[in-house]
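Re: [help] complex structure
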Amino acid sequence: MLHVNQLTFGYRKQQPQLQDIAFDVDSGDILGLLGPNGAGKTTLVSLITGLLTPNAGSITLDGQPIALGNRQVGLVPQEYAFYPRLSGRENLAYFAGIVGLAGQAAHTAIDRALSLCALQAVQQQRAGEYSGGLKRRLNFAIALLTRPRLLILDEPTANVDPETRKLLLDIIRQLNREGMAIIYTSHLLGEVERLCNKVVLLYEGKLILSGAMGDLLGEEHQKIYLKLTAIPSPELLQSFQASRGDDNWWCFTLPPGTTPATLLSTLEAAHVDYSQLRYGTQRLEEVYLAITSGRRPAP
Amino acid sequence: MIAFIASLNKELRLLLRDWHALLLLFLMPAIFIVIMSLALAERFGGNEQFQLKGYLVQQTNTPAASSFVQSLSQTSLFDLTEGHAEAELNLADKSYALIIAANFDQALDTPNARGVHLRFAPELGAREQELISAAVHQAFASFYTRRIADELGYDDDYAREELMREGFIGRVDADLSATPTAVQQNVSGWLIFAMFFIAIPLSTTVIQERSQRTLMRLQTLGASLGVIYLAKLAPYGLINLLQLLLMLLLGAFLLPLLGARGLSLAVNLPALLVMGICTSVAALTLASLIATLARTVEQATVVSGGLNILLAALGGIMIPAFIMPPAMQTISQLSPMSWALAGFLEVLVRGGGITDIAAHCFRLLLLSLILATLAAVILKRSNPRG
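Output below.
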């Protein structure tokens, strides 16, 4: 569906903000777009929506180059991009008019968006008087007017209460089940882990990681984390591809055919004791931090 | 078209719900017009008789003194009320006291003696003091010439016609209607000032749309910036024309109720409308340029407000250009508000038509073209997709 191919972009060609970015989003995917501030996520979103033009590479939607104003692509900006002095319904009516919807078609689209985002009860209230959660919902509802095939959500659950967060995530899942592809940027990695089936990690304008969430976290099942009281020999560390974490925690990768018992007996033979042990159930947040801090190479 | 109508509808709703903007655009100029028209009613031209208000203190009632008082009363320059020598003087009411001294008769026959004294309010300007002194001198010269003529056995007519040569200086009738009244000046001036003030609400909404990324969202939905901006400008243009209508009605109907001379609307109304439209176009394009240049609402507010006041001060809105020194009058021609004011006064004061205001309109429209081009170039640069 969406194909991003060797994308490079920079306001100045000598200083690219994004370099050689490539990934795909298919119908039914929820892709988590991750990266620290300044990694290039917003620039990438601007490129996908056609607000910016790449210096090199391409972005296609169903084989067609992406263009500004493509209503197959919906955007929910992080900011409340609507008018506080208009009511929720008036806001939706305005944006419906902008996309050329009038009369019954507009009413139907507005009612559907209001219903999906549970805004019917407050539709006549001015948007400026909404709570943070209601504002997020309205921001979301506007993007649904055109029934896009690809929806880009920029921090949609920032600063919202748990109920609204759950509601928004439920709507995203429902839309996804109906076939809508989602690109989801968020700093809430636990949320991304639960919601997304794909991950793209940007760091300093480069694509560090791209793949299925299951693959990324699944690797961790072959790992054991130990809090050691001494540092093992380099040979032992190398044989288990060990890397050091915080507070004397070490991550050991079990080679094929070995078990945790093999590792523990090897350590015992080397007179290296440990005080705590846990199996590789590392969460996305830990993977993310390990990669972005350079403690772990990207897979 | 649907997008344009939706945008127009949205802008009108936003504007009508912005009470601060409405107060700024309608109440502020209305208050200025009322206050300034009433306050400056006597400082402007018009058909009212110009009179110097003061106290007459007559310390002697001799026939000579009474004859002098009669000379004073014959000139319509003086509006004298009987008072006492120590009466309090002020600019607003009686600004001088004319005292006919008790020794008036003796002084008439004594060289260098003083028989009349003038006392002025401390804050009265030197020019006004000179004017009053000259008028009193003229009245005294008339009285004294008649007295000499009488002593020589001639009659009053001889004194006036032969000795005073009163008819020697003739007066070319001036078209008094060519000078604006306080109401004409202030209605036109503060209307223009208010029309240019749309820069504040207009640039504020543009900047808010930009910073809240609403503009970006609209672009991703396929809305063209041209349609968005055109729809944004249209309601403000209507507001400008509504300002024109309301301020003219205020001048014509409300001010007379408050004691000021009303504004006559028996003028060329199409010319007035054309002048309003040209002024509005200039105000809208200036507002657009400010909106594209300013990054924050604070910047836009300060720049719009400051520039508006500067253009108004220069353009003869706050201080009429005709009372400025010649150098300042030349500088005032640089302000587009002075072009608009000249156009409005041409219609309201001199009964001008469309051909009479063509030059003023041309200047305003040329400026608008330059401002709009600049705004479009800056917008294009800051938004390559625009």
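Chain A touches chain B at residues 49-53, 68-71, 73-75, 77-83, 85-86, 90, 93-102, 142, 146 (CB under 8 Å).
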